Amino acid sequence: MDAFGSAAAVNAASPTGLQAPVVGIATTPDGNGYWVTTSAGEVGAAGDAPPLGSAAGMSLTAPVVGMAATPDGGGYRLAAADGGVFTYGDAHFYGSAGNLHLAAPIVGMAATPDGAGYWLTAADGGVFTYGDAHFYG
Q: Taking a C-beta distance cutoff of 8 angstroms, is the pair 127, 121 a contact?
């Protein structure tokens, strides 16, 4: 695998066996590994990223659209287009928009620096905050 910018090359095989399109990626703290997630909630690990679980096989009401790792690399969260949030490893659940009627689908997720919160963003620019994530407008 080629690296670009300051990214380190990870000398590991890319995750295999994933059946659905890849929609998200999160890196390990040392940059020597990563997880990828598919729209079906499958998660593949490469490099020093440990396999921590996935939503594969679950009956999802909306596709997974993104993921965010915890700062220590011991967990990650998956976000679905309907606002659902799924946690694995040491990632804590702080809430989701899964019970809300959204004007537009969720398209991305980001974790706070300390990992004790996260933001979900919708296609219309809406931002939803959970845990210690602050709303800035």
A: yes
What Rg, from alpha-carbon coordinates, does the chain have? 15
- In this prediction the pTM is 0.88
Q: 99-107: long-range contacts (C-beta < 8 A, 24 or more apart)? A: 100/128, 102/126, 105/62, 105/65, 105/81, 106/65, 106/66, 106/79, 106/80, 106/81, 106/82, 107/65, 107/66, 107/81
* Segment 10-35, tens digit of pLDDT: 555 566 678 889 999 999 999 999 99
Residue 73 pairs in a beta bridge with none
Maximum Cα interatomic distance, the chain, rounded to a whole number of Å: 43
